[in-house]
Amino acid sequence: MLQRLFIDHPRSVGESYGQHATFAMGLGLRMIMAGLACVMHGLFPFLFVKTGSRCIRELNNCLQDRQPRDVLTKTMTPAAPAA
Predict the structure, then answer these.
(1) Does a structural domain hold residue 31?
(2) pTM of this structure
(3) How many domains does the chain have?
(4) Which domain holds residue 59?
(5) 50 within some domain
(6) Within a domain: residue 58?
């Protein structure tokens, strides 16, 4: 049971638990910092003018680089219209 909770998902993306934890926590910290920059920009529009959008692009690129190509193709292909 514990193996399923802590190891199955990291293994499914080709990582150990430690590698996955390090990446996910780093990503989360970057998101927190970007969010704080956005909050500060909201209060003081002259601060962090491009920080939020730059961070979003960087995080998106980082995540897309880690995705298997077949997953990206499936998620980027528009759904067929309903009949």
Answers:
(1) yes
(2) 0.70
(3) 1
(4) 12-74
(5) yes
(6) yes
Contact 34, 55 (CB under 8 A): yes
In the chain, the amino acid numbered 19 is: Q
Alpha helices of 1-83 — where are they, by DSSP H? 2-6, 8-12, 17-43, 51-66, 69-76
Report d(CA 20, CA 26) in Å as an integer.
10
Q: What is the pLDDT of residues 14-61, one digit of tens each?
A: 889 999 999 999 999 999 999 999 999 999 999 999 999 999 999 999
Q: What span, in angstroms and rounded, lies between the C-alpha atoms of 31 and 27?
A: 6
Query: Between vectors from CA 32 to CA 47 and to CA 23, what angle results, nearest 5°?
Result: 130
CB 17 within 8 A of CB 6: yes
Single-letter amino acid, residue 81: P
